[in-house]
């Protein structure tokens, strides 16, 4: 008897719950657009102006891919691949029913082809299939925004994990009809894990480490692309009494974030960036390739600490940010005493991401120096396709290790690097029909990288000189 009563009670409670769910799916395919506007794009931690009550429009997005050197931590350099020049990439703000005309541009100085998969797109590859773009090219595709929420976008060019690991991700927000409820301040934060040849803190230019990435053992776990992006002078700011909304994403490529703000409780969380709103939350999970929208009111002054609560990441790998809240004490909410020192980052310092690639390394002269220089060029450019030890990728990128094709004709190899190659090639008896993009390298760089490739992995030890490269370059 008692059991039956509990059963009935449970099902009534369950139905009650169901009826409280006010979610109604909007058929966005029926929303008509009214006029055309250019999308405002912002770099983190800022977001474009709210959509408000504007009608659905044709929204033009111009996003440029830029490969550039930046600083991961104090003295630690890294070559980032970016959407719009920042990690994470430019924030894109749309509303349900918009028709987005997407222009993806690959800067001519870049070394690699890229594309974009937007999780807000309903269509093959989230746009990836239509957006493969070589350096110096621009591709266009369009899509209608059918689902509201906060979505990740990322590059999906092989090797996908490496493109994401180098910073190729960002967020696109789709606001509901009428917009999200207004708040006082909005910010953009995205977590990412990074894999460097050297250990955490090892100075100098650090190449990407594929082995660590496969093992999921990052050296850095950071917000907005580097340690210190949200601390010191870069800390977010707010005043007592304001409501703050954080658009939180996780680019991964591997780790799930336990997103938490020390000293606050989230009043509202759009779980996984969707329409379900949870309240009074301490820590919210942000999956790799996922997002969440959190908002809270700040009631007392002090420093709030943004962390991934998988806490060794915060204190040893960089996932630490701050919100400096100013205003009058509120002794009822919090009595004090307070200290800003307790969570001072270990080794976290303020960095800037330089716009220009840093000065060229001194000239390599001896054969040993030239091979060393070639190795470093290889690990910045060729390695993405031909793989760290030159073994290539089956059916996609031919091997450079023990390559009969490479060893047969040095001038042809120089020509490939200078001018790129499309169409069929046969290497060690296997056919490849893909794209090698022209590499924007100087004569010295081409000579050194090829000398390195020839000197290793069982190749012919041929030495390539800048004069040989120059001769091929001047050939029509
Ligand atoms: Cu890419």
Automatic annotation (TrEMBL):
Q: What is its EC number?
A: 1.7.2.1
Pathway of action: Nitrogen metabolism; nitrate reduction (denitrification); dinitrogen from nitrate: step 2/4
Q: Which SUPFAM superfamilies match?
A: Cupredoxins, Cytochrome c
Stretches assigned to the Cytochrome c domain:
369-457
Report the cofactors.
Cu(+); FAD; Cu(2+)
Q: Which biological processes are named by the entry's GO terms? A: denitrification pathway; nitrate assimilation
Q: Any idea which UniProt keywords this protein has? A: Copper, FAD, Flavoprotein, Heme, Iron, Metal-binding, Nitrate assimilation, Oxidoreductase, Periplasm, Repeat
Q: Where in the cell is it found?
A: Periplasm
The UniProt entry, under InterPro entries, shows:
Cu-oxidase-like_N (IPR011707), Cu-oxidase_2nd (IPR001117), Cupredoxin (IPR008972), Cyt_c-like_dom (IPR009056), Cyt_c-like_dom_sf (IPR036909), Cytochrome_c-type_DH (IPR051459), NO2-reductase_Cu (IPR001287)
> What is one term from the GO cellular component aspect held by the record?
periplasmic space
Show the catalytic activity.
nitric oxide + Fe(III)-[cytochrome c] + H2O = Fe(II)-[cytochrome c] + nitrite + 2 H(+)
Keyword Metal-binding part of the UniProt annotation: yes
NCBIfam families per the UniProt record, alphabetical: Cu_nitrite_red (TIGR02376)
**UniProt subunit comment:** Homotrimer.
Identify its protein family.
Belongs to the multicopper oxidase family.
Under which name does UniProt file this protein? Copper-containing nitrite reductase
Species the sequence originates in: Flavobacterium aciduliphilum
């Amino acid at each position: 008897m008692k059991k039956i009563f509990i059963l009935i009670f449970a099902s009534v409670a369950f139905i009650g719950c169901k009826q409280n769910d006010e979610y109604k799916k909007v058929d966005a395919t029926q929303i008509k657009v009214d006029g055309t506007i250019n999308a405002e794009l912002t770099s983190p931690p800022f977001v474009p102006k709210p959509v408000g009550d504007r009608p659905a429009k044709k929204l033009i997005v111009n996003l440029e891919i830029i490969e550039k050197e930046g600083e991961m931590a104090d003295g630690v350099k890294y070559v980032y691949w970016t959407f719009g020049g920042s990690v994470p990439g430019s924030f894109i703000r749309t509303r349900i029913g918009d028709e987005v005309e997407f222009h993806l541009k690959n800067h001519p100085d870049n070394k690699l082809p890229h594309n974009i998969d937007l999780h807000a797109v309903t269509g093959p590859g989230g746009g990836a299939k239509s957006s493969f773009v070589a350096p110096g090219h621009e591709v266009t595709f369009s899509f209608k925004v059918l689902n509201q929420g906060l979505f990740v976008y990322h590059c999906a060019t092989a090797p996908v994990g490496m493109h994401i690991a180098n910073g190729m991700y960002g967020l696109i927000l789709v606001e509901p009809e009428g917009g999200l409820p207004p708040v006082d301040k909005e910010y953009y934060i995205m977590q990412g894990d990074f894999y460097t040849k050297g250990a955490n803190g090892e100075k100098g230019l650090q190449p990407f480490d594929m082995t660590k990435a496969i093992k999921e053992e990052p050296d850095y776990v950071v917000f907005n692309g580097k340690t210190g992006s949200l601390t010191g002078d870069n800390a977010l700011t707010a005043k007592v009494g304001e409501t703050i909304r954080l658009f939180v994403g996780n680019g991964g490529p591997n780790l799930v974030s336990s997103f938490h703000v020390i000293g606050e409780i989230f009043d509202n969380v759009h779980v996984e960036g969707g329409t379900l709103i949870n309240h009074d939350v301490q820590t919210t999970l942000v999956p790799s390739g996922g997002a969440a929208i959190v908002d809270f009111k700040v009631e007392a002054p002090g420093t709030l600490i943004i962390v991934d609560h998988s806490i060794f990441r915060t204190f040893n790998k960089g996932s630490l940010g701050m919100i400096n809240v100013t205003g009058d004490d509120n002794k009822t909410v919090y009595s004090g005493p307070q200290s800003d020192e307790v969570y001072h980052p270990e080794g976290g310092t303020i960095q800037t991401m330089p716009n220009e690639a840093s000065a060229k390394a001194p000239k390599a002269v001896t054969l040993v120096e030239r091979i060393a220089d070639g190795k470093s060029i290889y690990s910045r450019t060729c390695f993405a396709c031909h793989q760290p030890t030159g073994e290539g990728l089956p059916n996609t990128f031919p091997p450079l290790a023990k390559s009969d094709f490479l060893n047969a004709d040095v001038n042809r190899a120089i020509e490939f690097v200078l001018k790129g190659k499309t169409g069929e090639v046969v290497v060690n008896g296997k056919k490849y029909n893909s794209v090698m993009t022209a590499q924007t390298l100087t004569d010295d760089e081409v000579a050194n990288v090829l000398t390195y490739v020839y000197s290793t992995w069982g190749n012919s030890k041929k030495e390539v000189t800048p004069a040989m490269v120059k001769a091929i370059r001047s050939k029509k």
